[in-house]
Amino acid sequence: MIEPAQYSDVGAAGLTLAARLFIDPLDLHTWWWILLVPMAWFLSMAYKAVRVPNLDGYWRQVTSMAVQVVLAMVALSVVAFLIIEIFVRRMVG
User: 11 in the Ramachandran plot: left (φ > 0), alpha (ψ -120 to 50) or beta?
Assistant: First the structure.
């Protein structure tokens, strides 16, 4: 059996240089809305690849669904904004 002391020569420097994507994700909190477009596009590609009977208009259908997803998310955010900013403020104040 290999003892843990044999791995101690790696040191802390070797551990800090490793990619820790899921532990330390990219700081994109101010740019989250830009990621909506590729997420909707890839979601639409996967969904339409499974659901369409033939691929004759596949890209048109993917584009149509991606636009619908983005517009639905924008509409949901507008509705949530209106609920929070108008109705909740009237109920509290």
Answer: left
Residues 72 and 63: their CA atoms lie apart, in Å, by 14
Q: Is 66 exposed, middle or buried (0-12, 13-18, 19+ CB in 10 A)?
A: buried
Question: Which structure tokens are listed for 40?
Answer: 């909707």
Q: What pTM, to 2 d.p., does this model score?
A: 0.66
Neighbouring CB atoms inside 10 A of 40's CB total 20
The per-residue pLDDT for range 29-71, each reduced to its tens digit, is: 888 888 899 999 999 999 999 999 999 999 999 999 999 999 9
Tokens representing residue 25 in the block: 């994700």
Q: How far apart are CA 58 and CA 20, in angstroms?
A: 37
